[in-house]
Inverse folding.
């Protein structure tokens, strides 16, 4: 059990008979510090107490964070393995569940080959577990088909950063520096609702005179406080970024010395952006010319600026282009690698950063190594104790795995920490693909929509029932603490993978007694890679409030700011993005005349499997809604609160209308946290970014209809 | 207790963490006592928090026929005492700000007590502790005054010119130097 830890000199309320355990929230990439209150007699979690001393969040929490502890001892928790018999789940022993899994896996792999079993991971779990999912797929199951829900989250950011900067660390600077910045350019991020505790840093900067520019089709709580709100059409970020860069060049805001010394492709970029005059940009993006000009001047004049983006810009068929172009804006201004300036993506999932570094991705091995690179294969095979030839080849991306299930190439699937029948685009198709499987195993602690389809559901421990580390949105590796023992017969995911590995005759490759041993192996596996964790230890994390990777040596303190002297590309120079504007995968037409975009609300997290079970959060936001501009609503004769039907060629749903001027007149917005008939992902488009394979959740054409009585 | 609850309405992002946190305070019986409202949802996302202002001469206590609403020596107006409250709801009608809430199951009133068991130890109340946006803060009186002076200074730096409708938000014209720059 974790040691009781409250910092000296920090006043907290500690009630009689209780202890506080310092940990972090289980939800988004901010990984807010919090204390969990534990009754010492009953050893039960009884509540939450702010953690004022946590350097990034200072005790602040959003409503999800405040209520996060309520999911630990929740009545809906799955406490014993469930096996589906005659269409009904029946509680069973671990022995029986593992017997069945062993038999089925061996049967399927024996008949159709090793690749017939796939693994679908997630990144709302610790680095230790994320790392082990990759090893489990490749060593225990020997399958090439592994991918994870981060494909729907961070893959475009990763692709864009790798292309331009040569390395994918979500933020090039520590966020405690943000208060010293002069300008924030935020694209496709409703940070006030999606990462609420980040707002304090923007306010601190604003108090010193910083400007905020927000590009978003909606006037979100973030856009509302912006100095300029660029209300662009969904899917037009690349045109906007090109247009801003056109003006930066035209008005001589380019840091020529920096660009000459540290960047490639400037002449090509100049040529490409020449066409993107404010008028042309305005035509493509639907933003008024004055706003584009004003934003460019504010951004261009600011001595220290940070360009930030999130899923709005990334979940598009041009996700990688958008990220590369926005990053290039920061490069033109000579901002990356300097104090209080740089570029950052706002990580959506708790361990979205760490979870994508250590080999859960179809083409990746730990430490951002590549499975296609013979040297990388050899190194990791050495760490894992297998022959390099045994290492499976590259697999396919998350959504493409469902194509392979439909084609019967993948016949069995193990889903760990994810809920793809809610989070995928075009879920009617995804659900059919999963239903067509011969065998589906799901690890979860609540019966998610995906778990409902499973043949076996294995009960896992929550974040508060296991030790480990996560890497927050800044790239800071932090400690998650075990607060209580796992409820019922539930086990942490790493133990489950270990048990199945044993059954598959690969037990000797998984000899762990505790998460620390997995972390120590991860440190070695990542050593020498781009995401180098070798110098990160549990002790160092405690001693210095987290360690920023890369930390390549045991005595290395970590690297809060990256790219100070050179970039991680082969020639050490950043590659400015030269990308033309492309249309989204689907554009409005006569049948489907409006734009549809999706996103989050502050009260729910991802597919809502956790937050939809918390009373306070459901009271605030019980169901999805359609945001409609009053002008559009009046043309369709729709009143506030009235249920309306929306549809695309892929699916349809009904939801109450919420009429607000805080959205474009040609765009509808629906949050995505619900499943089945309440899921907007029945409608969303599975068009993929050609490079990152990110589906285009944020843009498609939609039809709006008034329901007749 | 010389700390101040300092609200900056325009900073509110509508997340309602303050309400979730209010339920977590020890004596709060998992019921929130504060409010977050939209100014006008159709127009914009602007919300604002609303808390008990702990009146010097509170109407809720004055209209209580049972003398159930106690005021601490620090000036915190507490919820109705369980043994005294007769459930008449006078306080909920008397408060000009609509703050006290009524528990129809237990037939008694409850309201914000500034997390008395925290604040009397100098620990920030739950709402101010968690507010991610600094819309609710629990700060020293001096810090508050400094913040107010700073706002005025920021208006000068930003070069905003007072209009007829908002001139009282700014320092008098003879005092500062305004610029006409839009940037």
């Amino acid at each position: 059990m974790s040691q009781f830890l409250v910092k000296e000199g920090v006043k907290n309320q500690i009630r009689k008979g209780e202890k506080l355990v310092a940990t972090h929230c289980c939800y988004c990439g901010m990984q807010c510090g919090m204390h969990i209150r534990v009754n010492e007699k009953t050893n039960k979690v009884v509540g939450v107490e702010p953690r004022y001393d946590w350097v990034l969040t200072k005790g602040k929490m959003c409503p999800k964070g405040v209520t996060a502890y309520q999911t630990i001892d929740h009545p809906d928790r799955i406490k014993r393995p469930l096996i589906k018999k005659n269409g009904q789940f029946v509680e069973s022993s671990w022995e029986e569940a593992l017997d069945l899994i062993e038999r089925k896996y061996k049967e399927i792999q024996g008949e159709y080959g090793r690749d017939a079993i796939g693994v679908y991971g997630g990144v709302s779990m610790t680095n230790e577990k994320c790392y082990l999912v990759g090893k489990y797929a490749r060593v225990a199951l020997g399958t090439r088909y592994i991918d994870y829900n981060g494909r729907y989250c961070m893959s475009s950011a990763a692709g864009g950063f790798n292309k331009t900067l040569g390395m994918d660390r979500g933020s090039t600077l520590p966020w405690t520096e943000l208060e010293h910045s002069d300008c924030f350019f935020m694209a496709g991020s409703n940070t006030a609702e999606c990462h609420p505790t980040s707002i304090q840093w923007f306010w601190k900067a604003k108090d010193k005179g910083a400007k905020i520019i927000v590009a978003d089709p909606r006037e979100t709580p973030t856009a509302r406080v912006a100095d300029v709100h660029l209300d662009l059409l969904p899917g037009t970020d690349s045109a906007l970024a090109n247009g801003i860069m056109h003006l930066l060049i035209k008005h001589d805001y380019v840091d020529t010395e920096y660009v000459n010394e540290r960047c490639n492709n400037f002449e090509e970029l100049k040529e490409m952006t020449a066409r993107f005059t404010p008028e042309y940009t305005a035509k493509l993006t639907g933003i008024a010319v004055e706003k584009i000009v004003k934003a460019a001047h504010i951004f261009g004049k600011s001595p220290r600026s940070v360009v930030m983006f999130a899923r709005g810009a990334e979940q598009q068929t041009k996700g990688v282009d958008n990220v590369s172009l926005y990053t290039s804006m920061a490069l033109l201004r000579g901002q990356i690698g300097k104090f209080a300036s740089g570029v950052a993506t706002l990580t959506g999932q708790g361990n979205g950063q760490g979870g994508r570094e250590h080999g859960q991705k179809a083409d990746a091995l730990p430490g951002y190594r590549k499975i296609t690179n013979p040297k990388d294969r050899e190194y990791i095979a050495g760490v894992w104790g297998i022959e390099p030839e045994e290492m499976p080849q590259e697999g396919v991306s998350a959504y493409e795995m469902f194509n392979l299930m439909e084609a019967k190439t993948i016949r069995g699937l193990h889903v760990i920490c994810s809920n793809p029948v809610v989070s995928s685009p075009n879920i009617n198709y995804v659900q059919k693909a999963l239903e067509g499987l011969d065998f589906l195993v799901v690890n979860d602690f609540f019966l998610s929509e995906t778990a409902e389809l499973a043949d076996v559901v294995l009960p896992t421990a929550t974040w508060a029932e296991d030790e480990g580390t996560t890497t927050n949105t800044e790239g800071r590796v932090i400690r998650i603490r075990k607060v209580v023992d796992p409820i019922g017969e539930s086990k942490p995911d790493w133990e489950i993978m270990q048990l199945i590995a044993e059954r598959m005759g690969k037990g000797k490759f998984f000899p762990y007694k505790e998460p620390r041993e997995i972390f120590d192996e991860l440190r070695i596996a990542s050593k020498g890679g781009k995401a180098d964790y070798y110098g990160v230890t549990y002790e160092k994390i405690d001693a210095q409030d987290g360690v920023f990777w890369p930390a390549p040596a045991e005595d290395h303190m970590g690297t809060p700011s990256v790219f100070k002297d050179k970039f991680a590309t082969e020639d050490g120079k950043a590659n400015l993005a030269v990308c033309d504007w492309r249309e989204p995968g689907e554009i409005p037409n006569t049948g489907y005349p409006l734009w549809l975009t999706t996103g989050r609300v502050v009260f729910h997290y991802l597919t809502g499997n956790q937050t939809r079970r918390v009373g306070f959060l459901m009271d605030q936001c019980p169901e999805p809604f359609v945001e409609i501009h009053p002008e559009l609503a009046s043309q369709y004769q729709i009143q506030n609160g009235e249920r309306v039907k929306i549809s695309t060629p892929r699916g349809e749903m009904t939801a109450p209308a919420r009429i607000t001027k805080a959205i474009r007149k040609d765009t509808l917005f629906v949050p995505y946290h619900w499943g089945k008939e309440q899921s907007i992902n029945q409608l969303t488009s599975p068009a993929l970014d050609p490079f990152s394979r990110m589906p285009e959740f944020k843009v498609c054409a939609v039809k709006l209809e008034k329901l007749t009585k | 207790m010389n700390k101040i609850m300092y609200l900056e309405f325009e900073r509110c992002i509508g997340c309602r963490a303050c309400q979730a946190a209010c339920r977590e305070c020890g004596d709060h019986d998992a019921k929130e006592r504060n409010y977050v409202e939209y100014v006008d949802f159709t127009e914009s996302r602007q919300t604002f928090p609303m808390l008990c202002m702990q009146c010097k001469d509170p109407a809720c206590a004055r209209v209580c026929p049972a003398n159930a609403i106690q005021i601490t020596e620090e000036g915190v107006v507490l919820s109705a005492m369980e043994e005294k409250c007769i459930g008449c709801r006078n306080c909920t009608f008397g408060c000009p700000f609509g703050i006290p809430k009524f528990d129809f199951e237990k037939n008694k009133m409850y309201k914000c007590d500034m997390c008395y068991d925290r604040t009397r130890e100098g620990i920030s109340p739950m709402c101010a502790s968690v507010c991610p946006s600094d819309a609710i803060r629990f700060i020293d009186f001096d810090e508050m005054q400094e913040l107010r002076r700073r706002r005025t200074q920021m208006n000068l730096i930003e070069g905003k010119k007072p209009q007829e409708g908002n001139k009282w938000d700014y320092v008098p014209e003879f005092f500062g130097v305004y610029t006409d720059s839009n940037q």
In short: Residues 594-706 of chain A form a domain with the Barwin-like endoglucanases fold (CATH 2.40.40.20). The mean pLDDT of chain A is 96.
